[in-house]
């Protein structure tokens, strides 16, 4: 099975995007841990691992087609954040960018009648709906619970619980 050069480039760009997202979450987790947000740190370390798994999923897909995946160098992500809320606003924005890229890939796969890539990408389409919803829900907590120290502590506690649930489910 072969894919077009254009589709191959889109997949390689997505590998770079997933790797970059993984590093970005790692940076967010590190900031959270140093700042005292242990729950957020646990949650964000898991997100970093998840993005790396997404990257590997694409690497294996290309390699299984006989196309060697390009492993990109990654530029240093932002590492200073003004607040826990700003971390999650940045995370949502990052997920929205990934969604746009995935949707573009789906459009190209449809246009080229690349049924294999189209089918492969459907998992990512579903995943991105879940990811955006997850971060939108977290951001809603700032409006619902508040932004004072007690509220932020509660949100951090809830993020830690979400990380624990994900670990137990795995």
What characteristic shape results from the CA principal axes? elongated
The Rg value, from CA coordinates, equals 17 Å
Name the CATH superfamily assignment.
Ferritin, core subunit, four-helix bundle
Taken as a percent bin, the fraction of beta residues is under 5%
- How many helices in DSSP terms? 5
What is the residue-mean pLDDT, rounded to a whole number?
97
Find the count of extended strands (DSSP E, 2+ residues). 0
Structure description:
The chain has five helices and no strands. Helix content is 81%, strand content 0%. It is mostly helical. Helix 1 packs antiparallel against helix 2, helix 2 runs parallel beside helix 5 and helix 3 runs antiparallel to helix 4. 31% of the residues are buried. The chain has a single domain, classed as Ferritin (Up-down Bundle).
What's the arrangement of secondary structure elements?
Blueprint: H1 5-35, H2 38-64, H3 84-111, H4 115-145, H5 149-169
Helix pairs in contact: 1-2, 1-3, 2-5, 3-4, 4-5
Note the main attributes of this structure:
170 residues, mainly alpha, Ferritin, 5 helices
In short:
With 170 residues, the protein is mainly α. The protein has a single domain, classed as Ferritin (Up-down Bundle).
């Amino acid at each position: 099975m072969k894919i077009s050069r254009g589709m191959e480039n889109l997949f390689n760009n997505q590998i770079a995007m997933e790797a970059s997202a993984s590093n970005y979450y790692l940076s967010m987790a590190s900031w959270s841990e140093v700042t005292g947000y242990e729950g957020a740190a646990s949650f964000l370390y898991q997100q970093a691992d998840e993005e790396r798994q997404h990257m590997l999923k694409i690497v294996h897909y290309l390699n299984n087609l006989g196309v060697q995946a390009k492993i990109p160098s990654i530029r240093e992500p932002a590492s200073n954040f003004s607040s826990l809320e700003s971390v999650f606003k940045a995370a949502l924005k990052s997920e929205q960018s990934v969604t746009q890229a995935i949707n573009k890939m789906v459009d190209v796969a449809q246009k080229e009648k690349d049924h294999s890539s189209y089918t492969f990408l459907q998992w990512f389409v579903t995943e991105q709906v879940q990811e955006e919803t997850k971060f939108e829900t977290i951001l809603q907590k700032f409006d619902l619970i508040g932004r004072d120290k007690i509220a932020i502590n509660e949100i951090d506690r809830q993020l830690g619980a979400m990380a624990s649930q994900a670990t137990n489910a795995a």
